[in-house]
Amino acid sequence: MADIIEADDDSFTDEGADLGGESSLTSLGSSIVKGVEENGRTYASYGKEEYGAPMDEQEMDRIDMAHAKYFMLLDKKRWLAPIPANPQRVLDLACGTGIWTVDFADANPSADVTGVDIAPIQPKWTLPNCHFEIDDIEQPWTWKEESFDYIFARDLLLCIRDWPRLVDQCFKHLKPATAFGTPLEDPAGYAKWFEAAGLEGVTEKIFKMPTSPWPKDPRLRLVGAFEQENLTVNLEGISTRVFQKGLGWGAEESTVFFTEERHTKPETTFILPIPCRLWQKAFVGSYLGR
After folding, report:
1. What are the structural domain ranges in the chain?
2. Share of the chain above pLDDT 90, in %
3. Sheet harboring 89-93: ordered strands across?
4. CATH placement of domain 24-173
5. For FRET with 27, which of 15, 35, 105, 204 sits at 20 to 30 Å CA-CA?
6. Measured between alpha carbons, how far apart are the two ends of the chain, in Å?
């Protein structure tokens, strides 16, 4: 019970929950709104761990200035991720003043956009499809898993102590990649689906397979060489339609992506400059001791 954060008696009531564009911040307790004073600056008082930056007017001005800076840096773009055309649920982690959250909600009326931060410095009144919550994103999330189309984060400075855990929570709460209708995680359900159909004696074996010839073991080195060829020999052919129809990419965007990929090779990658059939025979012959 030591990890539980107690709220003030007048905190987090449901008053105003159905008042359209009014933020839930209106029901926060006074101690959370005021924060704590240290060295002439105001810091957030909510959250299990302390956040290094303040939450006063000077810091809010800096956050909004940085928002304008990133807009210029990204050539008048607010985000770069290849999100769906009509996103439904979006989460803005450590949203600060909420300026990005509001901009995204304004540009995407189809989306229900949630901004979350431990500092209650967001506007009390906002767009109908935009709202804010006060929470510690390093604690277990209470949102439904596999429910967000897009999770955005920027400038998470002086606040994240366990990055792997945060990334893991993001992964669990994003919707599966089903834009093309053929989820890549389907193999994980094969066994249970066969059993659900009534089949008996279903056996599932999982093997680790390298994606390039980096293993020391000769057998796995050969497997990795074949898998590398499998993934790269026709990457453009098996991906173009998926990217265009699933992600909405144009032909030019797809061409640029595959051109860059062809010129990017991992350090452990090597392909012999001989025809594929001869290359395969050379590897097989070497492995079989011929």
Report:
1. 24-173, 218-288
2. 31
3. 130-134, 112-117, 89-93, 150-153
4. 3.40.50.150
5. 105
6. 66
